[in-house]
Structure prediction request, 431 residues.
Amino acid sequence: STQEQPPQICVVGSGPAGFYTAQHLLKHHPQAHVDIYEKQLVPFGLVRFGVAPDHPEVKNVINTFTQTARSARCAFRGNVVVGRDVAVPELQTAYHAVVLSYGAEDHRALEIPGEELPGVFSARAFVGWYNGLPENRELAPDLSCDTAVILGQGNVALDVARILLTPPEHLEKTDITEAALGVLRQSQVKTVWIVGRRGPLQVAFTIKVPRPRKRLTELLLRTAIEKPGPEEAARQALASRAWGLRFFRSPQQVLSSPDGQRAAGIRLAVTRLEGVGEAARAVPTGDTEDLPCGLVLSSVGYKSCPIDPSVPFDPKLGVIPNMEGRVVDVPGLYCSGWVKRGPTGVIATTMTDSFATSQMLLQDLKAGLLPRGPRPGYAAIEALLSSRGVRPVSFSDWEKLDAEEVSRGKGAGKPREKLLDPQEMLRLLGR
Ligand code: FAD
Prediction:
């Protein structure tokens, strides 16, 4: 039959990709219903757990996401790990279409000796720690050393460097966790090196447009080559903390302290460029340089993981193989965000690609390529989850936790004090 059913659509992941996909679907299909599944108890993905605490304006997108979540045709289903609590084929049976927007949950390893030494962390874990990601709340990095080395020169590396170098009193009015603030107040780190394999022209900071990029390069070179004027020299002499970029260096080995108990430095292979333009590759020259440091943060990229054996995955590119958001060879399955494109790009990039995925889905729906009969949607999944002892949380549950966080932050003048312990969150919800 051609009888029209309100499409039941399921989105996996409540970061920018999940919310922008849902927003577009709801706006352009007046009957569509969208359920957003999320493994955390709280929504918003990297907007909450990635974006630096001293960039609060970036988090304003949460207001738009909240409007979407409050729509009568949208529901947030937190505390559900897709791939563990419910399988993707189960979702496909319950819904007319499934969109995977589960981001990039892992980090790329350095794959060098000494990587496992205490004092070496992924930037991802470090960011998760200061932003209150439950799984990283015990990280307790030791900041009693005077030099930290960050491997990688992307936006995340810059965020991490800034958090290490900013006087803690400037972070006191942000939503950084009280625990992280306590550790940063005791920090002895005076110097931060940001190390990259390639040169100033290839840095991975967000500026991709040639003009500002050229200006950035000129600024970098001027700062590197020109002698500072007397005022600037005086200011630099007084500064208690310093940072620098080291180019054409690739990590070779983390060096340990004499007792072998922790990181004490890093051996860098000196590189030079082979090839031109964006394709230029860094190759080792054979020379090495040892940098003493007590803290090594590897910021060489986030990485998506396969979610379910039934979903195709490209381990080399770390993405779900797709054509403009349609998962290859699996009708009715779509993807958006970092798991579609790879872990690069700002929230605006993620928005554009999520709208594009939604567009494809709506096209397929219109063309009759999705199942036509009624689908049970959440009713079927709720029964499955309940039989497995999984109890999802709703958006109004999040609004209770949100109010609690805001009220805990008030005394200290912070926008919120994040709840870190899922058990405590569940207790606050009366579970
Ligand atoms: P995510 O935001 O990671 O969302 C994925 C969601 O899926 C998460 O909530 C996750 O918990 C959930 N999930 C994962 N697995 C499962 C599962 N099995 N079942 C259910 N749910 C699951 N962009 C800017 O514009 N400005 C910035 O200042 C900025 N700062 C950044 C700082 C850092 C440290 C990082 C890492 C990124 C930053 N970005 C910034 C980029 C921005 O965060 C990304 O573009 C965007 O978050 C990607 O969206 P996403 O939805 O694909 O992934």
